[in-house]
Amino acid sequence: MSIEQANNTAVNRMMEARPILKGVALARDVIPGMKDNLILHAGPPIEWERMSGPLRGATIGAMLFEGLAKNETEAISMVESGEIEFDACHHHDTVGPMAGVTSASMKVYVVENVEHGNKAYSNLNEGYGKVLRYGAYSKEVIKKLHWMNDVLGTALAEALARSDGIDIRALIAEALHMGDEGHNRNKAGSLLYLKSISPLIARVVKDNSVLSEVLAFIGDNALSVLNPVMAACKVMTDAAHGIEKSTIVTTMARNGTDFGIRVSGLGDKEWFTAPAEIPVGLFFSGFTQEDANLDIGDSTITETAGIGGFAMASAPAIVTFVGGSPQDALNATLEMYEITFGENKYFTMPSLDFRGTPTGIDIRKVVELGITPRINTGIAHKDAGVGQVGAGLVRPPLAIFEQAIIAYAEKYNL
Amino acid sequence: MSETEFEIRKGAYYDSVVLMRLQRDLAALPGVIDAGVVMATAANRELLSVNDLLPGSVNSSPDDLLIVVKADSKNSATNALGNVDELLSRRKSSGVSEDFRPHSLNAAVNQLPEANWVLVSVPGRYAASVAREALDFGKHVFLYSDNVSLEDEIALKKTAREKGLLVMGPDCGTAIINGIGLGFANRVRRGQIGLVGASGTGTQAVTSHVHALGGGISHAIGTGGRDLNADVNAITAHQALDLLKNDPGTKVIVLVSKPPSSEVATKLISAAQNANKPVVVYFIGYPAPARKIGYIHFAISLSEAADIAVELINSNLKLAGGDKLPNPNSYFRGLFSGGTLAYETLLGLQASLSPIYSNAPIYAHQTLKDPLKSESHTIIDLGDEYFMVGRLHPMLDNDLRIRRLKQEAADPEVGMILLDIVLGDGSHPDPTSELAPVIKDILRERTDLTILALVIGTDEDPQDIQLQIDRLEEANSVVFRSVTEVVEYISLIFSTHKSSQFPAIALDSLTQEFTAINVGLETFYESLKLQDAQAIHVEWRPPAGGDEKLASLLARMKN
What residue stretches are annotated with the Succinyl-CoA synthetase-like flavodoxin domain (chain B) (predicted)? Predict the structure, then answer.
């Protein structure tokens, strides 16, 4: 099989994967290899000593949530004495935004690719402000996590259990026609999600005030659907992974210290990493570029699957991130066609006359042209617990794609 | 009677406006009576049902795309469904955004698919691979870059020829296609003179002069300076000649080059002879064999080439010659009694017969090894000292010539033989009384052979010139009265070459609105825009940022 054929297979599998949101379950019950003392995190694998503020904070928060530790000091000493194990979410069919920290007792979305049969998991979105995914672990943060697990999670689990599930690919396709790009802007998608889930929740939640609380929580959070969307992108890119000879990127992820990628034809555990960059963007009042942490989160799985920054042409409302004019948004997407293998069959963009989104990053094209993927991202404060400080644009370091080319040449004896 | 077929696409979301357009396009297909394309919500199913477009067997969920076609036959319905993907992906326009500058040829081609030319002016070491990519996309190439290796040039041109595409260059400084100047080009009137130029400034000088004389240029096709080398073998020049020959907008062709290799020149002239329109040839520094041979006019300077071309625009060309067409792949043999006649004929045929040998050669490398044995095309001066030992001059004694004539005619590879018959006082009193019967016998045996007779003399000569001519014609030979005429005739016959085994370049390439992708010098792009040509500029950078190790790995990862 030629590289072209391999890539064709990989990208077709990515597009034909059909992610259905099937349910919500306890991480320890569904995530492969999940253990009580295991903390999953975003990005490529990393040890505690090299973790950035937000990831450390989220780890402490998860330990408090799990009851593994009573306070910050105890948590840190447990970690330092080696009682806690860490691994990348991606090694466990899981993805999480920002710190991506996922522990055994957390409820997670279950998304199944009904075309190829693989599954992926992602935690529940906490909304804005002081939240675990940005490294916050105060009492209110933990309290909210418990409410999400016990009330929201239970409602979602029961609601979804009584349905055929929600087709996330169709939801993304529709949201792209409503001004979303699927990563930084999920306003339309979240409302579509609310539309689909509300009648289901109403059937299972009997107490009106709880019902109101749950629906308001989902509806108020314009990122509600981000986690199922990420899990959907994960099943798509996983379906494209492991195709012998393929040069298509199947993972892009950051842990707040390193940016890592994996490539379809280069195996599961082989990450190509380099120091992550600091996103450039717009900041909430009171914050500046100085406050920004290095790039963090698994949400780059959206760009890997052909949406997010790659579908910028669909999201004129957020063009300020890329320079200001709708033309800049079009140009952002046009640039990504240069480094991708194909055009998406299902995700189309009205502003480009319904052209499919650029899909399937080809490491050959990235290195040949020196054009790295464009990523739309939230920006975390570099200190644990402060939260989101802005949003903007970042690109992975070119070096990791060059490493991948060299590794490819070695593996295939070129 | 109608048949209804349907297709369900799981989880494929499309906006209803897109679906209505698809529905309209499907309904317009042959044999289709009605079509319904909807997201299969309950309301939409109901709508289809009301319109008798919902077969009972349809089992769908609201997230599914449901496509139903009702047609006059099952076949029409199935065909219509087979068109769905194409109709969905069809775009009204390519959405050219002048604002966006692509970085790769691939992206540029997607952005401006109607572009038929790619201008390449990147540094030489990268130029061949960019040109190769352009050919792979089916585009003609204007290759301005120099320092492209000879091997690359040959490979590119061979690939292009296989695909019916042109590679102008490398090191092609100028061209004018459909009124648009490429590279360095002068602003000249459009007209009916087409140019094939292996010299950039030569092309500029001729086109400018044509303009100054009130004429105009249809197209000026550059070939690059090495095209007429023996190694490249004028691949582009031949293609360009062919293209201009077929172009109804071109009435006269001008061919300009620095000195080509003689082999290449011969073939090119032979091809020009077949253009069926006048061709003005100026091979700088190459001796012109005549002012005019058949369709070909030889110029002695760039400005004269322009002068002749402009004059020819309104003239009609007439050619002398017989009807019989000998095999152009056979050999020519000239058996002369007159040394100067042999020499002039040899000179005149330099451009059209190659290789050609003689016992009285003009150039040393054309010396016949053994005067008694002809090879390839040969011209023999039988009055040469070698043959004269113990003999009378062939103008007096036909014996030697008759023996040589029979010898040549016995060679099946020989297709044409020329004899001169020089009359006058002192010559043989009645040469054709001996020659004509031999000619007649030979031609009876070999019907594929042509024998030409060049008769020199006057009506007052003692041999009765009319009688001599009549006898020769009665013996089925073709009679000429001057070297110029006979040379023209031979040249035309031997330039009737086979039609090319390569695909012809589509004439559209010249006549379509010129649309280009520019890779390299931005000034070329700006110049195209100033001429109101549609074009996009590629922000080209060396592959892998110039890292040779990575670039060589990438080169091995092309497929």
Answer: 190-297
Residues of A with CB under 8 A from a CB of B: 2-4, 18, 20, 164, 167, 169-171, 173-174, 177, 247, 327, 330-331, 334-335, 337-338, 345-346, 348, 350, 352-356, 364-365, 367-371, 402, 405-406, 408-409, 414
The angle formed by the CA atoms of residues A82, A83 and A87, to the nearest 5 degrees, is 80
Strand locations in B299-395, DSSP E?
A: 331-336, 356-358, 377-381
- Would you state the pLDDT for residue B323? 44
Q: What is the pLDDT, as a whole number, of residue B321?
A: 41
The structure tokens listed for A227 are 């986690």
The CATH topology of domain A17-229 is: Enterococcus faecalis V583 fold (3.90.1710)
Residue B499's pLDDT is what?
57
Q: Give the strands of the sheet with B32-39, arranged side by side.
A: B3-9, B65-71, B32-39
User: Which residue from B14, B91, B551 is facing A355, i.e. has the nearest CB?
Assistant: B91
pLDDT in tens, A171-184: 999 999 999 999 99
Do residues B245 and B275 both lie within one domain?
yes
B14 and A173 within 8 Å at the Cβ level: the answer is yes
Per-position DSSP letters for A267-327, written without gaps between them: -SS--EEEEPPPPEEEE-TT--GGGBPSPEESTTHHHHTT-GGGGGGG-GGGGGGGTSSHH
Helix (H) or strand (E) holding B340: helix B339-348
CB contact under 8 Å between B100 and A334, yes or no, is yes
Inter-chain Cβ pairs, chain A and chain B, closer than 8 A? 103
Helix (H/G/I), strand (E/B), else coil: B316: coil
Whole-number pLDDT of residue B319: 42
Task: Round to whole Å and give the CA distance between A121 and A115.
Answer: 17
Nearest to A122 by CA among A109, A111, A112, A104: A109
Retrieve residue B229's tokens. 């080398």
- The pLDDT, as a whole number, for residue A322 is 65
Q: How far apart are CA A298 and CA A90, in angstroms?
A: 8
Please name the residues in contact with B403: beta carbons below 8 A apart, sequence gap of 6 or more: none
- Tokens 């617990």 locate to A385
Res B232: pLDDT: 95
Residue spans of chain B under pLDDT 70: 90-98, 314-328, 495-500
In this structure, what DSSP letter does residue B367 have?
Answer: B
Task: Specify if B85 maps to a domain.
Answer: yes
Buried-exposed string B92-124: b where 16+ CB fall within 10 A, e elsewhere: eeebeeeebbbbbbbbbbbbbeebbbbbbbbee
- Whether residues B354 and B418 share a domain: the answer is yes
Question: Which of 3.40.50.1760, 3.40.50.2300, 3.90.1700.10, 3.40.710.10 is the CATH number of A241-411?
Answer: 3.90.1700.10
Whether residue A353 and residue B61 make contact (CB cut-off 8 A), yes or no, is no
In the prediction, which pLDDT does A6 show? 97
Dihedral angle sign, alpha carbons of residues A250, A254, A255, A261: positive
pLDDT tens digits, residue range B383-399?
888 888 878 888 888 88
